[in-house]
Amino acid sequence: MKQKFKSAKTFLIAASLIIAFVIPLITENEYYLHTLIISGIYILLVLGLNLILGYAGQLSLGHAAFYGIGAYTSALLMMKLHFSFWLALPIGGIAAGIAGLMLGFPALRLKGPYLVICTIAFGEIAHQIFMNWESLTRGPMGIPGVPSPGEFSIGSFVIDFSEKQVYYYLVFIIVIIALLLNYFLVRSKTGRAFVAIREDQTAAEVIGVNLTFYKLTAFLSGTFLAGIAGSLYAHYIGFISPESFTLGESINILVMVIVGGMGTIIGPIFGAVGLTFLLELMRAFADYRMVIYGLILMILIVVLPEGTMGGIDILRRNLKKPQKI
Amino acid sequence: MGILSIEDLSINFGGLVAVDHVSFEVKRGEILSIIGPNGSGKTTIFNLISGIYKPTTGKILFKDKLINGMKPHTVAFMGIARTFQNVRPFKQMTVLENVLVGHHPKVKSLFIDDLFHTSKQRKEEVMIREQAIKLLDLFHLKQYIDEKAENLPYGDQRRLEIVRALASEPEIMLLDEPAAGMNPQETEDLIRLIGQIKDLGITIVLVEHDMKVVMDISQRIIVLDYGKKIAEGVPEEIRKNERVIEAYLGKD
Prior knowledge:
The complex is a heterodimer.
Chain A: H1 2-26, H2 30-55, H3 63-80, H4 85-109, H5 112-132, H6 134-137, E1 151-154, E2 157-160, H7 164-186, H8 189-199, H9 201-207, H10 211-237, H11 247-260, H12 267-281, H13 289-303, H14 307-324
Antiparallel strand pairs in A: 1-2
Helix pairs in contact in A: 1-7, 2-7, 2-8, 2-10, 2-11, 2-12, 3-4, 3-5, 3-10, 4-5, 4-10, 8-9, 8-10, 11-12, 11-14
Chain B: E1 4-13, E2 16-26, E3 31-35, H1 42-49, E4 57-62, E5 65-66, H2 72-78, E6 80-82, H3 95-102, H4 111-116, H5 119-138, H6 154-166, E7 172-176, H7 184-199, E8 203-207, H8 211-217, E9 220-225, E10 228-233, H9 235-240, H10 242-249
Parallel strand pairs in B: 3-8, 3-9, 6-7, 7-8
Antiparallel strand pairs in B: 1-2, 1-4, 4-5, 9-10
């Protein structure tokens, strides 16, 4: 029975990879591609928060701050200092990671609601900096004309990253790498230390888990991913402004983590892609869009308290039971 | 020289003196029990040894090294493991994962190894998996290997917690009321389990209320009352000690 599920899982993963890979080849529809690229960026954001919250158990409502730090750092490096995109992208991630470490320090001392307040405050500080450091960020006007990664030529073969198809594959590859590293990490000593901290901090400590090190590691890796997502967003949309990196956005990412299923690998993909598409589908409802979206979220949380992945787990257990007896 | 010596240890919480100038020594390879009425400071001593609290005065020496003031994870790395009064396995983890976390202090792979799944990390992972399965087999938990810890019967959760602590290959184990809430059968099993641990060459300090367990397995007993040590000796001596009887039953 277990074997069966394992091969079914492998099949599903392979199938979704192939589908994700061929979509841009079969559709010319820019709108679909756009939604998929945005979904990919959300996958990175959700994966990051999932490490911090789902695995290490530290509830952060400041995730959009790191998304923004990555976006601004990368955009400004390319526009003001003429860095290449390929350098600006990782530096955007690193800048967000360093800021993440700064948020990690108070998290060493704070728990529960106190930590949440602290992360909200941190997000607000970042937002205020984007708003008010006008000489650098142009404040509420935002930064238009963020360049795309440009062209990449191998002989006469030119890859133009301003094309949606090409950008899709860029995001696709980065998402795959992030998923793979994430998978390795959570199934290792580090991942187990994260979960131990989430489950019982004191018991973890007494077993030998260095709380300082692992909490900071969780914040660093999670926020690094957010920074990468920010950079990808900035150079894709071409315009960034403080509005994109608010508490509302942090909550949005949090909802994706919860609806997808905290502390799982596949959950974040469900959450990110599912909710991005759901929001797009809701456009048909015009003014009622957010009302209906909110209602659907409420129903989802009630019906699937452990998220989509938790729901699948429960279903699997129920299917298994009759066979055992 | 003992493996662990406690010298003149005290801790105050506000005005309350929870542990009051207590000294004792734990000899290598023995089972030493600490008993006393509720609130006499037994668990507090464990919390002091494992680094959860810092003592107000006094010294804790482990293998002649001063360990008070060290963080709990450092104490664990040095070879002191403990369990808790209330069962605390990592509930959402499987039984195997619980024991794998227990191996934490022994695993040398770095964050980078974990992230990139290097051959060093893979080799180590295979090794600790084998060891964990061996331990689970030895302590009769192998049938639950992929079960979530929270689904185990109470007695087995306790046992799992002990196995998790054993996984770090400690030199000394502090067991905090392992028999609490166990039925007679489970208690029998526990006594056997503690014997097995002792046979592995691990020194055991036991805090316990169940006098059958204490009298059955301890080589020496220390009695605390209101944070003070009131007696120390072999089980027969403690059984007859007037002050101990008084502390437990009260004076006429």
